[in-house]
Amino acid sequence: MLKFVLYSTVLSSAVLLSGCGGDTASDDKSATQVVAKVNGEEVTIHQLNQLLSRVRVPEGEYSKEEIEKKALDSLIEKTLVLQAAKSVKLDREPAVLSALEEAKNKVLIDRYVQRTLESVAKPTDEQIQRFYDDFPELFADRKMYVFTKLAISADAEQVERLIDEVKQGRTIDQIVTQLEQQEIKYKKMSEAKGEGKLANPILHFLSALQAGDIGYLKMNDGLLVIELHKLLDQSVALEDAKNVIAQQLWRDERKKASKKLVDSLKETAEIEYVGKFAPKP
User: Fold this and answer.
1) Do 99 and 160 belong to one domain?
2) d(Cα 5, Cα 8) in Å, to the nearest integer?
C-alpha cells in the first residue's frame, strides 16, 4: 500500500511550516498550474512535484496516475488540517511560532551547509584502495565469530574460583551448572558477529582463540567467560566493497568540511558570552 507521511492526522509544527499555499493566490496563475482547490485555496503542480520527488515507490507496483492521485490526495488532506489549525488561530500561539521559527532556521542552516559542501570531491580509486588495505579486518580478512558468553556477577573470591574452572577446561554448560548450584547471578548469550560489530576488547580477545577454545576476561563487577564455537570467513573483494568505502570516505570528508566551515565562521565572528556564561573576572 502506497503511503505518505502527510496522511498522519497528528501534524507537527514542522509540517505546518511547509504549508500548501499562502492565504491568497496570485491572480495571474495559469489554470495548468493549479491541480486542486481546497475551500478556495489552490494546490499547485509545483507542490505536487515537490512531494512526488520525495516519494519512493517500488517500480511497477503503481501506475504514474495512481501515484500522482495519491500524492495529490495527501496534499489535500494536509491543506485541510492546516486550514483547521489556522481557523483556531493555532499559528499565532507563542509555542507554535517559536517551533516554526526553529524549523525555518534549521532548513536555512541545512541548505547553507549543503550548498557549501557541494564542492567536496568524491574519493579517488587510490583513496578507496588505501582504505581497503588499511582495514583488512573489515574487508579482505573479515571474519564472523560464533560464540557463547557468560557475564557473571561475582566477588573477587568467586572470580578466582571460576577462573580455575575455566583453566581446567570446563565448558560453558558445566560452568552454568556450577553457577546455579552456588546461586551466582549470570547472563548467558549466544552471538554471531562480524569483526566490525564487535567492541575492540572483545574482538582482540576472540582473535586469540581457536574454534572450541574457552577463555575469560576480568570485569569490574565479575567475570566474562567466552566459548568460541566457529570462525567463519566473510572476506569481501575490493570490487564488492568499493561503493561502501566510497560513501564512507565521502561522508568523512563532508564532516571535516562542515567542521572547517563552522570553525571559519567562528574565527571571523564577534562572540560575547553574557550573564552567567560571562567570563569570570
Assistant:
1) no
2) 6
What's this model's pTM, rounded to 2 decimal places?
0.57
DSSP track, 36-91:
EEETTEEEEHHHHHHHHHH----TTTS-HHHHHHHHHHHHHHHHHHHHHHHHTTGG
DSSP three-state, residue 245: helix
At residue 4, the pLDDT reads 42
Residue 10 has pLDDT above 50, yes or no: no
Residue 89 lies in a domain: yes
**281 or 25, which is more confident:** 281
12, pLDDT greater than 80: no
Q: Tell me which H or E stretch contains 198.
A: none
User: CA-to-CA distance for 78 and 18, rounded, in angstroms?
Assistant: 10
Q: Residue 113 class from Cβ within 10 Å (0-12 exposed, 13-18 middle, 19+ buried)?
A: middle
Q: CA 103 to CA 98: how far, in whole Å?
A: 9
